[in-house]
Amino acid sequence: MAVPVEGETLQIHSYKHDGHLHRVWDETMVLKGTKNLVIGGNDRTIVTESDGRTWVTREPAICYFHGELWFNIIGMIREDGIYYYCNLSSPFVYDNEALKYIDYDLDIKVFPDMTFNLLDEDEYEQHRRQMGYPDVIDQILQRNVDKLVRWIRQRKGPFAPDFIDIWYERYLTYRR
């Protein structure tokens, strides 16, 4: 498997379980790239939805993708603190074209005070029926929701104090 190169930019492609392209982030700077971990940074990047609509992210973000975990984490740096958006998803793959993963609808939004909400349970159930998510995927995702909640409560990984600040500093260094 190819490994993203630090200091270069890549696209991020999010797919749905049925294989259709869901969303594309145009440009993310690779801050750390190994076969099992990619940490990236972006700011005001163009995002293209599956229907062709585009929008631009509003704030700097640090993205955390793992090759064995069924979630990814985006830390968004805002005036009033760091907000996290966590996607329950397949582990990522990288193929020189883009970093790719399957988005499984469930999300956790984490606020600067580390309170959080599980989102999109209705959408998950609807897509689970429509796209026929196998029971094994459902079990994996439920275990990973639990793992993500433990990480949030324990301030582990990207939720650790200073994690986002340290990687944002590296992002700013590469951008200079």
UniProtKB/TrEMBL annotation:
Functional summary from the UniProt entry: Has nucleoside phosphatase activity towards nucleoside triphosphates and nucleoside diphosphates.
One Gene Ontology term of the molecular function aspect: nucleoside diphosphate phosphatase activity
Gene3D superfamilies: FomD-like (2.40.380.10)
Cofactor: Mg(2+)
Pfam families reported for this sequence: DUF402
Superkingdom of origin organism: Bacteria
Keywords linked to the UniProt accession: Hydrolase, Magnesium, Metal-binding
Start and end residues of each DUF402 domain: 18-156
The keyword Membrane is annotated on this UniProt entry: no
Organism: Falsibacillus pallidus
Coiled-coil boundaries: none
Binding site for Mg(2+) 1: N87, D103, D107
Annotated residues for binding of Mg(2+) 2: D105, D107, D120, E123
Catalytic reactions on record: a ribonucleoside 5'-diphosphate + H2O = a ribonucleoside 5'-phosphate + phosphate + H(+); a ribonucleoside 5'-triphosphate + H2O = a ribonucleoside 5'-diphosphate + phosphate + H(+)
Enzyme Commission code: 3.6.1.15, 3.6.1.6
Active-site residue list: R23
TM regions (residue ranges): none
Leading EC class: hydrolase
Family: Belongs to the Ntdp family.
Identification of the protein by name: Nucleoside triphosphate/diphosphate phosphatase
